[in-house]
Amino acid sequence: MRLMRNRVCSLLLSVSMALTPTVSAMAAEENATVAQSTAEESAEISETVETVEEEGESASEYDAAYTGLANYGGNVWRYQVNGKVQWGYTGLVQYYGTWYYVEKGTLNWNYTGLTNYYGTWYYVEGGILNWKYTGLAKYYDTWYYIEKGVLNWNYTGYTDYYGTRYYVEKGVLVWNYSPFNLQSISAATDKFAIIVQI
């Protein structure tokens, strides 16, 4: 905040020095008008630039009407709506054509896993939605089948994951699956046949 005040004071000082009248009373009157309009402009600037002082840090925010990801220096990005950080938001945010995973208002570069966005589950890797990924992903204690970055609830079949073949049914990995099913041939004879399913 102190840095912001110093910049505004420096700006006002520079403007007033450049506009100082040297010759006439008319110039002095004009200077007073300019100084007043400069002060009004400075007040407008300080109204549109706000300071966030939550979670122990202070950072200048973007314009009060800005909605999207805002850089807070280095690799720290925060999700804002109308210039306010959305500390309670967790989900996806699009920024220049790329989707990012935001957790509690801050882009989480370390997150890899699934996230739900408007009813669809997406696969995020390193904080970025990975449209190229096809394979399995664990969410809590369940493994799901992901196809091109999206959980595919309609997929039933085999998939390879790190050299091992797994069976997936309706988008969920089936741990106890066996390709051998016992099916009754005749209820009267109680005989069974083994039928291989491929």
Structural commentary:
The chain is an alpha+beta fold and 198 residues long. Helices cover 21% and strands 42% of the residues. It contains 2 helices and 19 strands. The chain has a 3-stranded antiparallel beta sheet with strand order 3-4-5, with no helix packed on it. A hairpin with a 2-residue loop joins strand 16 and strand 17. Helix 1 packs antiparallel against helix 2. The protein starts with a helix and ends with a strand.
The tally of beta strands, per DSSP, is: 19
* Main sheet properties: 3 strands, antiparallel
Distance between the termini: 68 Å
Report strand %. 35-45%
- In one word, what is the shape? elongated
In a few lines, what is going on in this structure?
This protein is an alpha+beta fold.
